[in-house]
Design a protein that fits this description.
The chain has helices at residues 22-34, 91-94, 97-103, 211-215, 218-234, 276-287, and strands at residues 2-5, 8-14, 56-62, 70-78, 83-85, 113-120, 125-132, 156-161, 179-181, 184-190, 194-199, 247-252, 260-265, 305-310, 313-324, 327-337, 339-343. By secondary structure, it is of the alpha+beta class. It has a 17-stranded mixed β-sheet that branches. Strand 15 and strand 16 form a beta hairpin. It starts with a strand and ends in a 9-residue tail after the last strand.
Length: 352
């Protein structure tokens, strides 16, 4: 099936329909998304949309783990590379996992809501997902709006548990809240997504430039990539030249009631919005003293909701905090997403 999940779009497969061997599996995923030539950036011969946000795959199966309903593996088909990347999760594509599982008969519904616990294979973590199922059927239409997606839809609530250090092993993978790379201050953080935060002003940019302007800024992109490649091993990610993590995030002062303004690169293309778990990591950095966000982020006086501004609007994150060693500890992160089933059927794989 093809579903829009959050502000992304992807192909959703049952694991049982694919080869068990990852190399063989990837050949099929690349062919489905890109066609014969997995390096065509247009993806004209496949179902991909020629953008990182539409070049995504979810692989779903019933879970054999205690207290878990669904196993979800995320695969990013890296644009124009002929490669895949399983380093990260995708919280947007996750929004479509439970609807897909219901449509596929993996789980049954309850009315008026259905809750399912999803094991995220990529990060060995759990997310509780609650979707609207009046009359025991998936509801896709509704009045919930998320920036980056036209129109409204039924709300999908996602509660992430124990995601600190999901890819890098710890919240601040370099062991510091602030590092200096090539004379530029950076904060490396992983609360569900490995992200490198940089002050836009430190790179001679405002951070309010349009997505198109930043995508055309080859000097900036070269600088970001030089920094990213150095930080890969420092973040326990190894060589990241062919990987989509860590994400690079420029920050600046908020413009409209948010706590911070962002421009995220994934890793070389400026995001039209911001990723779900990327927003969680950015919000987490903002509430912890000593990061590059200090002096830029404007935190609310009370409450647990934090609005992250991005090129097409804002993304609100809920953080449930505890206290460990006198610093904030994120116990649970909640986000609201939407999803819609777009199509179901067969994808034709080229015979070679």
């Amino acid at each position: 099936m093809q579903l829009r999940g959050g502000s992304s779009k992807g192909l959703y497969f049952l694991a049982a329909d694919l080869p068990k061997d990852n190399a063989e599996r990837d050949k099929i995923l690349l062919a489905a998304m890109c066609g014969v030539d997995g390096t065509d950036p247009r993806q004209i011969d496949g179902l991909g949309g020629a953008d990182p946000l539409t070049s995504k795959v979810a692989i779903i199966s019933p879970s054999k783990r205690d207290g878990v309903d669904i196993d979800y593996e995320f695969v990013q088909v890296v644009l124009a590379s002929g490669k895949t990347d399983r380093t990260q999760n995708c919280g947007n594509i996750l929004a479509g996992v439970v609807p897909f599982a219901i449509e596929s008969g993996i789980i049954t519904t309850t009315s008026p809501e259905t809750s399912a616990r999803v094991y995220m294979v990529n990060s060995d973590a759990i997310c509780e997902v609650i979707i609207q199922t009046p009359s025991a059927k998936v509801r896709y239409d509704g009045n919930t709006h998320i920036d980056g997606v036209p129109g409204g839809a039924a709300p999908i609530t996602c509660y992430y548990m124990d995601i600190s250090g999901s890819a890098c092993g710890k919240l601040f993978p370099t062991g510091k809240r602030l590092n200096v790379i090539d004379g530029v201050d950076v904060t490396c953080i992983d609360n569900g997504m490995p992200v490198v935060l940089l002050r836009a002003s430190d790179l001679g940019r405002t951070g309010y430039e349009s997505r198109d302007a930043l995508n055309a800024d080859l000097e900036l992109k070269s600088t970001l990539e030089d920094i990213r490649l150095q930080l890969g091993p420092m973040m326990n990610l190894g060589e990241v030249k062919g990987k989509v993590v860590p994400k690079m995030c420029l920050i600046s002062a908020p413009l409209d009631k948010g706590i911070v303004h962002t421009r995220t690169f994934i890793p070389h293309v400026c995001h039209a919005a911001i990723g779900v778990l990327g927003a969680v990591s950015v919000a987490t950095a903002c509430i912890i003293p000593g990061t590059v966000t200090e002096g830029i982020a404007l935190l609310p006086d009370s409450g647990s909701y934090y609005s992250i501004e991005h090129p097409s609007g804002e993304f609100t994150v809920s953080l449930e905090l505890g206290v460990d060693n006198a610093e904030p500890e994120v116990l649970k992160a909640g986000v609201i997403r939407t999803a819609r089933l777009l199509s179901r059927g067969e994808v034709m794989i080229p015979s070679p």
